[in-house]
């Protein structure tokens, strides 16, 4: 039986014990294809709350939004406070309940590098100062990482911290990126991966299977490309439709057909046979366990999904 390098196994090997990723969602963060600088409305499937379960409805009074040209950030004190509160709440819970003793701070919601440099530095410095934090994982897009930020992240690595940039790639097809309103092309992704790894920062690529008008062959081609460009980790998830998104409208109009569980699981089996043993497979499932989920219904329960996937993988000699 071939054992996949899951994130739990990787952390155990790397840090000698369990490490918990602590999800952080901060007020004021947004995305350049939501705020109008590149596009409006965001990706057609984006409902950040369903992708980030810990995202809470934050103070709506303030209209300040992060971007690269914001000269002063009146929200910084509040963001630092939220970071501290969320870190201690989660870490104490996981310590008490599961005996976890080490943490990686995961800046998860929206585009977490889309903010003034000083703001990012203040937030990352603070996160790394918390007790038993081994590093950071930062969710972003390939067009939102400035060179000076990579320098800073490289300095953290030199000081012994483990830093991951999680790039939302989703597909390597420009046509798909356009259809889904990603507001960037795939050009430059390979270079971005190389620049990131050159600083000692690890690259995790996110892919979505089941995007509109994509065949299984196209999805596997996206996987082959990111593997060829050089990644340290990967997250693959099925596209599911959340109420209130533009994808929901397409689905209701009969213009989008979600991926079936059988097709997705076959693709996962094939994918895990292609992914090298030293690439950390951080995720192979996704869903929304509430009434925001419109389709497909099999994405409602991640436990059932995982049991099904594990059985399929076992049948071909792979343990996840
Ligand atoms: S890039 Fe991410 S945060 Fe931005 S709109 Fe798309 S899914 Fe949402």
Automatic annotation (TrEMBL):
Names of the cofactor(s): [4Fe-4S] cluster
Pfam family, one: Radical_SAM
Ranges where the Radical SAM core domain occurs: 14-278
Classification via InterPro entries: ELP3 (IPR039661), Elp3/MiaA/NifB-like_rSAM (IPR006638), Radical_SAM_C (IPR032432), rSAM (IPR007197), rSAM_sf (IPR058240), YhcC-like (IPR005911)
Domain of life per record: Bacteria
Keywords attached to this entry: 4Fe-4S, Iron, Iron-sulfur, Metal-binding, S-adenosyl-L-methionine
The keyword Transferase belongs to this UniProt entry's keyword annotation: no
One term of GO molecular function: metal ion binding
PROSITE patterns the record matches: RADICAL_SAM
Listed PANTHER family: HISTONE ACETYLTRANSFERASE-RELATED, PROTEIN YHCC
Identification of the protein by name: TIGR01212 family radical SAM protein
Organism: Helicobacter magdeburgensis
């Amino acid at each position: 039986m071939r054992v996949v390098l899951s994130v739990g196994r990787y952390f155990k090997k790397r840090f000698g014990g369990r490490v918990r990723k602590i999800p952080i969602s901060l007020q004021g963060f947004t995305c350049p294809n939501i705020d109008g600088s590149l596009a409006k409305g965001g990706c057609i499937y984006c409902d950040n709350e369903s992708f980030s379960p810990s995202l809470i409805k934050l103070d709506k009074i303030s209209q300040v939004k992060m971007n690269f040209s914001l000269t002063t950030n009146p929200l910084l004190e509040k963001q630092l406070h939220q970071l501290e509160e969320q870190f201690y709440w989660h870490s104490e819970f996981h310590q008490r309940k599961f005996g976890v003793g080490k943490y990686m701070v995961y800046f998860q919601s929206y585009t977490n590098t889309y903010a003034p440099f000083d703001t990012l530095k203040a937030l990352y410095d603070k996160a790394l100062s918390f007790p038993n934090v081994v590093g950071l994982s930062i969710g972003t897009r390939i067009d939102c990482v400035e060179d000076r930020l990579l320098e800073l992240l490289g300095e953290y690595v030199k000081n012994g911290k483990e830093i991951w940039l999680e790039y939302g790639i989703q597909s390597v097809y420009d046509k798909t990126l356009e259809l889904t309103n990603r507001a960037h092309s795939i050009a430059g992704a390979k270079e971005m991966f190389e620049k990131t790894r050159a600083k000692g920062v690890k690259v995790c690529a996110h892919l979505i299977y089941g995007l509109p008008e994509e065949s299984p062959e196209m999805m596997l081609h996206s996987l082959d490309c990111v593997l060829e460009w050089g990644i340290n980790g990967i997250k693959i998830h099925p596209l599911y439709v959340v109420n209130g998104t533009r994808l929901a409208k397409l689905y209701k109009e009969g213009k989008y057909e979600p991926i079936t569980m059988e097709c997705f699981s076959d693709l996962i089996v094939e994918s895990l046979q292609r992914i090298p043993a030293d690439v950390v497979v951080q995720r192979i499932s996704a869903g929304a366990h509430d009434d925001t989920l419109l389709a497909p219904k099999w994405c409602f329960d991640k436990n059932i999904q995982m049991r099904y996937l594990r059985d399929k993988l076992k049948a071909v000699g792979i343990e996840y």
